[in-house]
Amino acid sequence: MAVLREWRAEIRRELKHEYVEYVRSTGIAEYRALPGNLGAVVATRDLDEERSEIVTLSWWTDNKAIQSFAGEDISIARYFPEDDRFLLTRPEGVLHYDSTPLSEAGG
Fold first, then answer.
1. Nearest 5°: phi and psi at 103?
2. What is the set of domains in the chain, with CATH numbers?
C-alpha cells in the first residue's frame, strides 16, 4: 500500500502554464529527489475566465517518507517563495489517501 498526497489551489488563469512549470521545477523536482517518493503528477483545469485549479498528486511509500518533504505534520501544505504570485487561494492543508502504488495503477 502506498500513500497518495493531494494538494490543490486556485490560480491565476493567465499564469497557469508558467505556474505549472514553476511547480515542476520546485515541488515536483523535490518530491522526485527524495527517498520514498514513487512519482508525482500535476493537473489543471480552467474554472472561469480568470481562475484555474491546479492539483498535485504524489505517491509515497509511507508517511515517514512524506515527512522528508513536508515536515513533522504532513497535513500542512508546504509553499515555495514565488507561489503567492500565482495563487488565488492558499489552502493550509493537504489530503492523504491509502493508494495503490503508482507502478500498479491501471493494472
1. -65, -20
2. 2-99 (3.30.70.100)
